[in-house]
Amino acid sequence: MSRVARILLLWTGSLLLLLPVMLRGQNMSVSVTPEPGWLAPYHPDLTRQPNARDVYNGYYELLFEEQHHVENKAVYRHVIRRIVSEAGVQNGAEISVEFRPAYEKLYFHKVQLRRNGQVINILTPSKFKFLQQEKDLAQFIYRGTGTALLFPEDVRKGDELEYAYSIVGRNPIFEDKYFNSFTFSAEDPVLNFYRALICSPSRQLDLRAFNDAPEPVQKAIKGNWLYEWNLKDGLKATSADTDEPYVQVTEYKTGHRW
Question: 122 with 162: CB under 8 angstroms?
C-alpha cells in the first residue's frame, strides 16, 4: 500500500470515528411555520371515494402532494389520510418523517383532524419524538438519519388526519448539482397524487422514466420551470412483486432529456 493510500485510509477511519459524536450533537427539532409561498397551485378532488376492496389496512390516502424546489433546496409534502376502521386507527395514525439534521431543517405547517365537519388542530411541537440512526452496522456506513415521530391522540374511525411539512437543506458535498429519484407506487390507495419539480431554466436536467412511469408536463411558473405529475386517477396499491415505476432526475449527463 502506498504512503498516500495509507494516509487516506487513516483519515477516512478517523472521520468515521468522529461522525457519531458530530451527529449526537445535532439538534433534532421541529419548527412551526406557514406553508411556503413558492408552491405550484394544485386543486385535488377531495370528494373521491375508493373501491372498498382496495383498502387493506383500514385507511387510505385521500391526498399525497409532494413539491420540490431545487433553488430553495426544499421539499414540501401534504397528506390527507382517511381512517375507515379500527385497524386503520392502529395502522394509519402515526406520522413519521425522516430527515438528516446535519444539513436539513424540518418545518411543520399543519397537523389536524377532520371530524364530523370540524377541524381540530393537533400540531404541538413538544409532542414529537426523535430517533437517530447513526449507521448501518452491517455495512459500517454512517447515515446520520433522524426520524421525527408523532402519535396523534384520540384518532377515531371516520377521521381524516391531515398534515403538511417541509424539509429544507441539501447535502453540501454535492455542491449545487441536483439529482433525485421519484417513485410512483404505493402500499395503500392514493386517490389524489401530485408531484412537482421546480427549478431554474438554467439547469439542464435529464429525466428518464423506468417501468412505465408517467412523464411530466413541463410549463413555466414565476420565472422557473415546473415539471408536473398530476395523476387524475391517483395510485392503486401495488404488491411487492411489481416492478416499481420511477423517474430519475439529474444534472449529470446520463439520461434522456424531456
Answer: no
Place of cell 445535532: 26
Q: Which three cell numbers stand for residue 251?
A: 444534472
At position 143, the amino acid (one-letter code) is R
* pLDDT tens readout for residues 7-44: 334 444 444 433 333 334 356 889 999 999 999 999 99
Alpha-carbon gap, residue 191 to 183, rounded angstroms = 16
Distance CA 223, CA 73 (A): 17
Measure CA 188 to chain center.
Answer: 16
| pTM for this model (two decimals) | 0.84
Q: In this predicted model, what pLDDT tens digit does every residue of 141-178 receive, in sequence order?
A: 456 789 999 999 999 999 999 999 999 999 988 888 99
Amino acid at site 145: T
pLDDT digits (tens, 9 = 90+) for 44-80: 999 999 988 888 899 999 999 999 999 999 999 999 9
Total number of domains in the chain = 1
Q: Are 178 and 251 in contact (CB under 8 A)?
A: yes
CATH classification at residue 31: 2.60.40.3140
Domain extent for 27: 3-250
C-alpha grid cell, residue 52: 372498498
